[in-house]
Write a structure and sequence with these properties.
two-stranded antiparallel sheet, 7 helices, extended, 3 domains, three-stranded parallel beta sheet, alpha/beta
Length: 228
């Protein structure tokens, strides 16, 4: 774990307070990128897995020049001082346009989640309560707008929902195999489906799906606790 660290190098010119707190170069001209807490240069076939980068005052990780076939997987990057810091790690690939690519990616991720998640919740609420799942339905729209409004309010007040997200991932990891197993059991009951119950081939495929859901569920739960 790398946590609660910053970059406090002093020089005669001081610190240039702009976005990622870039340092004014020692020469007095231009600026220098604040060094990352993990800096990799001229490296090949490096793997960084199951690490935590939290509460850092600058860039968590930076892949510099001549870095190839490097894998960064299963790590947690949380509470980095500025979203602009993330773009620094993309500069070797995208150059000065890294911040624009990062901005587009964050916007796309945010806008799609903001639209589809409340919409999915409205469909679920309508199905559970027996409402008509119609875009013109007032109840459907109220649920949709209510959940969307909650997201706006919580993001405005700076509420951090990371624990809720972790809980949802654990719940999904537990419920997904249970639901898959229940469906497989029901699909084999002649009293429910009669002649339409599963065949042997369908049961084999169902077992493969069940094993897959168990694997994905366990993997999702373990990833929450950074165990894999």
């Amino acid at each position: 774990m790398i946590a609660y660290a910053g970059w406090t190098r002093a020089n005669e010119q001081g610190v240039f307070g702009w976005q990622a707190q870039n340092l004014i170069a020692d020469t007095g001209w231009g600026e220098e990128m604040t060094p990352a807490h993990v800096q990799i240069n001229a490296a090949h076939d490096i793997r960084i897995e199951r690490c935590r980068f939290e509460s850092l005052g600058a860039i968590g990780m930076h892949l510099g020049n001549n870095v190839s076939e490097t894998t960064i997987q299963g790590n947690l990057f949380q509470d980095i001082s500025n979203a602009a810091d993330l773009a620094k790690g993309l500069e070797p690939l995208f150059g000065v346009n890294a911040k624009y690519f990062l901005s587009i990616g964050l916007f796309a991720a945010g806008i799609t989640s903001a639209i589809t998640a409340p919409l999915a919740a409205a469909f679920v609420a309508s199905g559970c309560l027996g409402w008509e799942a119609d875009f013109k339905s007032k109840k459907f729209r109220m649920v949709w707008m209510f959940i969307l409004g909650l997201g706006v309010v919580f993001s405005t007040i700076g509420f951090k929902s990371i624990e809720i997200i972790k809980f949802a991932q654990v719940a999904n990891g537990l419920l997904l195999p249970i639901i898959a197993g229940f469906l497989l059991w029901v699909m084999n009951k002649a009293s429910v489906l009669g002649t339409y119950k599963n065949s042997k081939l369908q049961n084999v495929m169902g077992i493969i799906i069940l094993v897959t859901t168990v694997f994905l569920g366990v993997k999702g739960i373990l990833s929450v606790f950074i165990l894999i």
